[in-house]
């Protein structure tokens, strides 16, 4: 009996050690906290892809988002991030000014500007340039990103209004958003039309995406990711960047109103 009890104890200890070994193998050797600094248009995609990356790797990702101009300015002001998502032009300027260095940015997504109205509201006809122009003039108030905040869609639209000959008429009805989601102003009743990157319009519950602005006046923006030289969590951030640029991102991009960046 004593011999059986001793053998049982040995087996139990061995079994416990084996479970512990399996637990150690299942746990990442190290877990990092990755800071991702991204433009607002790409945030919905990052927010959808990051949880799977975190489950798979054990790393934790902190997402910070701003307009493209504010992201660039934050880096100029000394902000440090492990992974930055920005437009190629934004990266070019920061690299040229010596504010960023490292491996070249990796293209991640492409997105155009869209039109949204409050859910249940009449849908304007925006399929032609003339129809789009008429819809803008008929709107009581139009929400968009303030060009002064550095948002790429706001900067482009301000110039587009001038080219369409409605710059002066639009000034009185614009609801300018300094970063954030223009379509949120539809839900509050501050505006009855919102213009912004499609991915950001889709992110607002209670808003309805009408569609993209006409192809003749459309402006597509490419977003890319870069791990800055000297990033504290460069290895983990590089793994995240590979995930964001990988094939599993395509369906998420489609669901969020974006497309792969193409060749």
From TrEMBL:
This is ABC-type molybdate transport system, periplasmic component. Transmembrane segments: none annotated. InterPro entries: ModA/WtpA. Keywords: Signal. The gene is modA. Pfam families: SBP_bac_11. Residues 1-31 form the signal peptide. It comes from the Bacteria. GO terms for biological process: molybdate ion transport. One of its GO terms (molecular function) is molybdate ion binding. The lineage of its organism: Bacteria, Pseudomonadati, Pseudomonadota, Alphaproteobacteria, Hyphomicrobiales.
